[in-house]
Amino acid sequence: MALSIWRCMLNSSAARCHLHRSLSLYNSSHGFKEEEIKNKLALLTGGSVALIKRENGIAELCIDNPARMNAFTGTMMIELSECVSDLENWQEGKGLIVYGAENTFCSGSDLNAVKAVTNPQDGVMMCMFIQNTLTKLQRLPLISVALVQGKALGGGAELCTACDFRLMTEDSEIRFVHKHMGLVPGWGGATRLIQLIGSRHALKLLSSALRVHPKYALNIGLADEILSSGTDGPLAEAQKWIASYTKGAADVNRAVKKVVASGREKLFEDSLRTEKEIFGTVWGGPANMQALSKGTKHNE
Ligand SMILES: CC[C@@H](C(=O)O)C(=O)SCCNC(=O)CCNC(=O)[C@H](O)C(C)(C)COP(=O)(O)OP(=O)(O)OC[C@H]1O[C@@H](n2cnc3c(N)ncnc32)[C@H](O)[C@@H]1OP(=O)(O)O
User: Fold this and answer.
1) Cα of 249 to ligand 1 centre, how many Å?
2) Which of 4, 58, 63, 292 shows its CA 20 to 30 Å from the CA of 107?
3) Tens digit of each residue's pLDDT (9 = 90 or more) over 209-258
4) β-pairing verdict for 165-169 and 143-148
5) Which atom of ligand 1 is the closest one to the Cα of 110?
6) Helix, strand, or coil here: 15?
7) How close are the terminal C-alpha atoms of the chain, in Å?
8) Can you tell me the distance from the alpha carbon of 188 to that of 193, in angstroms, rounded to the nearest whole number?
């Protein structure tokens, strides 16, 4: 079969692969009434979530509510969802750094918002809204990094588990305080924590609300690097760190994250099929042809 026809077949199946992007975890068939909960969240104002998409393909998402230790108000939950949707459509994107304003990460839900969302139905609806957002964040075809400075508490601890990697500054902590609030994680943090560090370590952190300092986080696999207090500052350190994992063409970087995200979630044979489809999107592509024409050697 002519190579070009074969590639066309691979590419057409790869196109189908793209069509499955950004299906929400919860929809109306699960009783999720998105517009209804968004209208309620919109009344809980304060703070903001800002997204910068840079020319080099690395975006920065800032959780900005320093007067409340970057706690999420209702409007910030809506803005986070909108930023993640924007990133889902950013075809040039390769990486994402999530961080908090004024050198602290996030202290979870704004307790004023929590007190305003009194009935259990609305609480569960808010939980579904946030889980939809954080599941899409985790599945973005970008390498994502949570830059943890200061405190990542409650929902803030859950948010950092939705990123592929966590970089912690020397004085920072991640703390699942839910049990002290008479709660369990609801933003998907328990499920992702078990994926990251295993059920034994996850149960220890959730049942003790332990302050997880950087060295222990590194030891149990929750953190990937402890950032030294370099002269450039933590955000610049994080930019340097992510740059070493996002070199080269955007489509190849995105394909790498897609094959790993597929293997992380799918059954073995389904993941193999997805890997084949993603392979078809880069086989014979510009980066592949350039490497072949250069006679690339791997002895650096
Ligand atoms: C599924 C989980 C999810 C949910 O249930 O929806 C949650 O995340 S529940 C919330 C979990 N988070 C908390 O319980 C954090 C509560 N705050 C603290 O423990 C402390 O503030 C701190 C984060 C450890 C920082 O302590 P400290 O350095 O002493 O500063 P302050 O306490 O003075 O905080 C400064 C300022 O910020 C306000 N603040 C902090 N966190 C929140 C929050 N989550 N919601 C609302 N406001 C918050 C704090 O009240 C102070 O404000 P003022 O008192 O007006 O100065």
Assistant:
1) 41
2) 58
3) 999 999 999 999 999 999 987 778 999 999 999 999 999 999 999 999 99
4) parallel
5) 45
6) helix
7) 37
8) 9
- Ligand 1 neighbours (beta carbon < 6 A): 68-69, 71, 107-112, 114, 151, 153-155, 177-178, 181, 183, 185-187
Q: Is 177:186 a contact under the CB 8 Å cutoff? A: no
* Sole residue written with tokens 């592949």: 288
What does the pLDDT read at residue 14?
43
How many whole angstroms from 75 Cα to the centroid of ligand 1? 17
Q: What's the average model confidence in pLDDT over 11-40?
A: 71
Rg from Cα positions in the chain: 20
Residue 112 corresponds to which tokens in the numbers above?
A: 């004023």
Q: Ligand 1: which of 41, 44, 69, 179 to mutate, most ligand atoms within 8 Å of CB?
A: 69
Quote the ligand 1 centre to 4 CA distance (angstroms).
59
**Ligand 1 centroid – CA 127 distance (Å):** 19
Q: pLDDT category, 177, cuts 50, 70, 90?
A: very high
Strand partners, 50: 62
Whether 84 shows a pLDDT value over 80: the answer reads yes
| Alpha-carbon 282 to chain mean position | 24
Tokens of 289: 């042809």
Hey, which of 63, 72, 107 would you mutate to test ligand 1's pocket, going by the most ligand atoms within 8 Å of its Cβ? 107
Task: Tell me how far apart the alpha carbons of residues 127 and 174 are, in angstroms, rounded to a whole number.
Answer: 20
Among candidate residues 239, 237, 184, 183, the one with its CA nearest the CA of residue 55: 239
User: Edge-to-edge, what's the strand order for the sheet holding 48-53?
Assistant: 48-53, 58-64, 95-100, 143-148, 165-169, 225-227
Contacts (Cβ under 8 Å, ≥6 apart) of 257: 140, 141, 142, 143, 164
| The pLDDT of residue 206 | 98
Q: Which residue has the tokens 């970008």?
A: 142
pTM for the model stands at 0.92
